[in-house]
Amino acid sequence: MTFLVFLMLKSTGKAMRLLRLLVMRLLSTLSVLLYFVKGCYRYPKEKHHPCEDLRCGPGEDCVVTQSFQNKDVLSAQCICPKLCPNYGDSVDSSPVCSSDGVDYHSLCHMKQHACETKTNITVKYFGKCDPCAQMKCGSSTQCKLSEQRRPLCRCSQQCSLHHDPVCADDGNTYSNECVMHVAACKDDLQLSVFKKGKCEGHHNNPCSNINCSWGSSCHISKNGTAECRCNKKCELILKPVCGTNGITYDNECELRRLSCEEKSRIEVHHEGTCGPLNVLLVLNYIINYFFKKFRDYIYRQLLGLQFLRCLSLIVIPLCRPGVGGLKCDHCLPGFWGIHLIANGAMSCQRNLKENYLDTCGCSAFGSTRADCEQSTGRCECLRGAVGDKCDKCHDDMVMTAGGCVIKEEYKTPRYGRS
């Protein structure tokens, strides 16, 4: 320090300003170090540590102080961090992702917030919750995380236009192996070549004869048999979502993956954590879960019985809600979406309009069919007919038993003798 003062006295101009800046930074660093070092104390092994008797709350630090009257008497107390110094590139000054999905400037800032709000928050990841959030990649690339959670622009492999088709183990044909790897990269899939050349036709393709549910996808094993697999890979990002079962998941991918593995229908109720235990949400999930188990049990018991057709006419509901037919192969009037059941839907759908259930009620004159169109749940209108129910015509037309007709061409029917 004496040497620095001597240089300050001898230097002038620009050199003087640089020395002053150097001394100011040195003094500020020393003051921060002295603030934290003054409370340090090395305990002998045979001496009792006062912090062992304390149980600090979320984010609090145990600080030991000496008594003014007797320096041998030590006391401890839990306090919130007051100052969060910046150590540059040190790990202690690096951003952290908390268990509630919030980014903090450092571990100290997270503990400070946890202490002030009395919330039990822990470190989920060192670094940002979603490192790809602010990463900008080219149009032909996508941001993906490495195993160390570093954001990288990937999936940019330049594939040749050479047509050398391969059949992947997902049952799909790709123009060449490079294109297959790029598709796997973009969709976070693990694909490998099942065989060279195109996949077999619809009848010989193992994946065409299997119907995967619960979000699983078809994969062809080495012996040529098809099986449904759940996605095993989700990126290490934290975008909490609350499931319909009242449980918070790290991200939507994790929710879908666990829903598939547990073979349980779980949807995203809302983004963010579930917060306090939602009793109604959990109760609704439990009721639906055991109802499904009971329904599947009844189906198994009744399977193969000769009087199955008779039972479908009495109390026991063999078909799912909104489903009809002796084989439960179509939706009842006012319902739609029989094809959605194969994708995990619990029943045929019914339109909700202004907080009440709305039957199709398609116009017998203005629509092509009396029931809903099964893929959309809407009425299919004839030419010139408009409206949700196909019960109206354009201004220059009039509704008749044969549909909408131009007013000038419409002839009023006559009844009785001519």
UniProtKB/TrEMBL annotation:
It comes from the Eukaryota. CDD domains: EGF_Lam, KAZAL_FS. GO terms for cellular component: extracellular region. Keywords: Disulfide bond, Protease inhibitor, Serine protease inhibitor. Pfam families: EGF_laminin, Kazal_2. InterPro entries: Fol_N, Kazal_dom, Kazal_dom_sf, LE_dom, Prot_Inhib_GrowthFact_Antg. Residues 79-131, 154-201, 229-276 form the Kazal-like domain. GO terms for biological process: cell differentiation. Coiled coil: none annotated. Transmembrane segments: none annotated. This is Agrin-like. It comes from Heterorhabditis bacteriophora (Entomopathogenic nematode worm).
